[in-house]
Amino acid sequence: QVQLVESGGGLVQAGGSLRLSCAASGSIFSTSYMGWYRQGPGKQRELVADITSGSRTNYIDSVKGRFTISRDNAKNTVYLQMGSLKPEDTAVYYCNLVSAYGRVFWGQGTQVTVSS
């Protein structure tokens, strides 16, 4: 079983920055796909950014140039550096892990609130 623990959320003014972290337990992190999702008020959960085990990255258009996903396999941690934050980035952000065998795990989520 893998546990994912997110941290780094909070309240920030528009234009500010936050860095989210997601620490994974166990030994499968380095071979797993990692993703950051978010769910805003009244919205469906959406993929924000992801990173493969080979560190290829992908972003949704609305965060390109503002967010950066990265991973540190030595620390079993994936990061989401968020800059130029906008009120529409307000959401609960979830970490997601998909193992090489297709098992899916989710973190508990961390709230990000961007005030205008």
Written overview of the protein:
This protein is mainly beta and 116 residues long. It has strands at 4-7, 10-13, 18-24, 33-39, 46-51, 57-59, 67-72, 77-82, 91-98, 104-106, 110-115. The strands form two sheets. Strands 2, 4, 5, 6, 9, 10 and 11 form a seven-stranded mixed sheet that branches. The protein has a four-stranded antiparallel sheet with strand order 1-3-8-7, with no helix packed on it. The protein starts with a strand and ends with a strand. The mean pLDDT is 97.
Note the run of SSEs as H and E: EEEEEEEEEEE
Count of helix runs: 0
- In terms of DSSP E residues, the strand content is over 45%
Shape: globular
Structural class: mainly beta
Task: Record the SSE blueprint.
Blueprint: E1 4-7, E2 10-13, E3 18-24, E4 33-39, E5 46-51, E6 57-59, E7 67-72, E8 77-82, E9 91-98, E10 104-106, E11 110-115
Parallel strand pairs: 2-11
Antiparallel strand pairs: 1-3, 3-8, 4-5, 4-9, 5-6, 7-8, 9-10, 9-11
In brief:
With 116 residues, the protein is mostly beta strands. The chain contains no helices and eleven strands.
Which characteristics define this entry?
single chain; mainly beta; four-stranded antiparallel sheet; 0% helix
